[in-house]
Design goal:
Blueprint lengths: L1 H17 L10 E3 L8 E4 L4 H4 L3 H15 L3 E7 L2 E6 L1 H11 L16 E4 L11 H19 L4 E7 L4 H13 L5 H4 L3 H25 L4 H6 L2 H14 L3 H25 L5 E4 H17 L4 E2 L5 E3 L9 E4 L7 H16 L3 E7 L3 H13 L8 E6 L2 E2 L15 H18 L8 H21 L7 E2 L2 H4 L7 H20 L15 H23 L2 H21 L8 H24 L9
Parallel strand pairs: 5-6, 5-11, 6-7, 11-12, 13-14
Antiparallel strand pairs: 1-2, 2-4, 3-4, 8-9, 9-10
Length: about 600
């Protein structure tokens, strides 16, 4: 990378000019702002202590040294202590010539060594996937793809929350109000049928709470002492004690949910290398907790419950096993982490989970460390904000969530309507048009979600996401299709890509596109380091926007100079390739016709 060369020689310049040792990594270099002339800028101020000169004098000397040592550099200018460096056109055209045919450009070879294990999705088997799950899945999938592009071996896993009181609520509701109902005889998708059971339980629970409150009990106590909650708790204990009838119903209803999940995952383009089930991992966690108790690391209260004392970390006590012997989420997460470590010995254990669980994962790492698991330091919580709607937050138990399947159906209908209105499918047959509408709708959904920094909350607006102008998936997809149309026309006219290094003048708009293409490998590295698909999304939007400005201002097919035309076709070809590559990292397909 030319930045590395500049950084190394700048450090040498300080040594030669001022007899001071400066490590290359201490040379601050960044892209030059668009309102100044230059490609890369060095901040001179950190060197003034050793130069004992004015900023502009120091910058002048370092700039001249760099021009003498690095033949790729063409010029420099100084603005208020910042050294702006101009890289010569031959460097940029040489870069383009070397890389435009490389389909793997920007991606690193897979390195030998321990893998990264990333968990995402983590659904409950008491409800269908909703918009919040969609953000989770899209972030998890994209982070996995970005890490793979950065050379990591990645294992994509899912932990299904298939046990616990919430599952028993759906099971109990089915026994009371949905007996004999199944996906086959109701024509309702399995995960949605079970979700209806969960909502019905909450509705009936509220009625019982209202009765107890009317009799003088406070609401908190009432919610814990209703007949329905007592029955659900009893069912949970029967489940943990392997009651045959409870286990059979649990297997049946979970099977319905898994079939429904698979349909949704397939449409989203999501899959996993391995699926874990809490019904298995909680047993491992309980055993580890009991071992910790024997070792004196954990303690038992008078009611028989087992706790971790976290006062040394400035935190409260943490419950790990209830008095009745049933486990909590922390218990099963301890077991799951241990199981994954034993299976993969990963270099990192990533958990894509909402930011409401920040404290949970802090405590998980602390407890595992207390229990002697040195690898606990390698646990990373890839935290993300909630998805909000114009009318407020979603609530699963009240049935006010945005269902993932219905969302994708609505996105498809909107994409179809807009594409037809704009004539995007005029030259396509029925099947091709249907594939295009699906590609546009999913591209709009995925891009709109992934363009937002995962750590931030976001407001989801479906209508805003499907727009062929602006910072949207369809705009980028259309840019890719536009380039393919251009290349197809060029081929029909006998025009070819440029062979060799172009020695002619490079237009500023051409150079801006090339510079963006040049930055793609660093974009992938940065996105991997921050576990942030939004970095890739911002890059690919900037690339599409910059290319469209180049396309509008500079003639390609009507260019009389055949070398210039061929060079611009090569630039267009490379741009389309990188757009496709970057969008793939976001889980988005791009069309060749639109």
């Amino acid at each position: 990378m030319i930045e590395t060369t500049i950084r190394n020689h700048a450090a040498q310049a300080i040594n030669v000019l001022y007899s001071a040792n400066v490590a290359p990594e201490h040379v601050i270099i960044q892209k030059t702002r668009k309102d100044f002339e230059g490609d890369f800028t060095i901040n001179i101020f950190p060197f003034l202590k050793v130069s004992r000169e004015k900023p502009d004098v120091t910058a002048e000397k370092i700039g001249n040294y760099l021009l003498e040592q690095i033949p790729e550099l063409e010029d420099f200018n100084i603005i208020k202590g910042f050294l702006n460096i101009v890289v010569g056109n031959l460097f940029w055209t040489g870069f383009l010539s070397e890389n435009y045919g490389n389909r793997q450009y920007g991606k690193q070879e897979k390195t030998a060594g321990r893998p990264v294990v990333i968990e995402y999705s983590s659904p409950n088997t008491n409800k269908p996937l909703h918009l919040g799950h969609v953000r989770n899945n899209l972030i998890g999938w994209s982070v996995a793809k970005i890490l793979e592009a950065n050379g990591n071996d990645v294992v994509k896993v899912n932990l299904v929350n298939d046990r616990g009181i919430h599952i028993c609520k759906s099971m109990l509701a089915w026994e009371k109000w949905f007996m004999d109902a199944s996906p086959d005889n109701t024509n309702i998708k399995g995960d949605k049928l079970v979700g209806e059971c969960y909502v019905r339980f909450d509705q009936e629970l509220k009625k019982e709470v209202a009765v107890l409150v009317a009799d003088g009990m406070n609401k908190d106590d009432a919610e814990k002492n209703t007949p329905l909650m007592a029955a659900a708790q009893e069912m949970l204990q029967k489940w943990e004690n392997n009651d045959p009838s409870v286990r059979e119903l649990w297997k049946t209803m979970n099977a319905w949910v898994y079939q429904g999940f698979d349909v949704t995952y397939d449409r989203l383009g999501i899959y996993f290398d391995k699926i874990y089930y809490e019904s298995d991992t909680f047993l491992i966690g309980k055993e580890i907790v009991r071992e910790g108790l024997k070792m004196g690391i954990l303690f038992k209260k008078e009611d028989g419950s087992i706790w971790a004392g976290l006062s040394g970390e400035g935190l409260d006590e943490k419950l790990l096993l209830r008095a009745d012997g049933t486990s909590v989420y922390m218990t099963q997460d301890i077991g799951t982490a241990q199981l994954r470590y034993d299976e993969y010995h990963p270099v990192k254990l990533l958990y894509v989970v909402g930011n409401e669980q920040n404290y949970h994962f802090d405590v998980l790492k602390i407890i595992l460390s207390m229990l002697g698991r040195k690898w606990a330091k390698d646990i990373v919580h890839v935290s993300y904000g909630m998805v909000e709607l114009p009318h407020g937050k979603m609530k699963s138990r009240e049935g006010t969530v945005v269902d993932a399947d219905e969302l994708m159906d609505n996105m498809y209908q909107t994409a179809e309507s807009m594409a037809v209105e704009l004539g995007k499918a005029d030259e396509l047959n029925k099947d091709e048009a249907s594939q295009l509408f699906e590609m546009i709708s999913l591209g709009a959904l995925k891009y709109f979600i992934l363009r937002v920094d995962p750590k931030k909350n976001m407001l989801f607006n479906p209508e805003e996401s499907i727009d062929f102008n602006g910072n949207t998936g369809p705009f980028i997809q259309y840019t890719h299709a536009r380039i393919h149309s251009l290349l197809k026309k060029a081929k029909s006219r006998g025009l070819k890509l440029y062979d060799g290094v172009f020695n002619g003048d490079v237009h500023p708009k051409e150079k801006e596109v090339i510079k963006l293409l040049y930055s793609y490998p660093e974009v992938i590295k940065d996105a991997a380091a921050q576990y942030s698909p939004s970095i890739v999304a911002a890059f690919v939007y900037d690339l599409a926007k910059e290319y469209n400005q180049f396309y509008q201002e500079i003639s390609i097919l009507r260019e009389e100079d055949t070398d210039k035309a061929a060079f611009r076709l090569s630039l267009s070809h490379f741009t389309a390739s990188v757009i496709s590559s970057a969008m793939e990292l976001l889980g988005i397909h791009v069309p060749e016709k639109m």
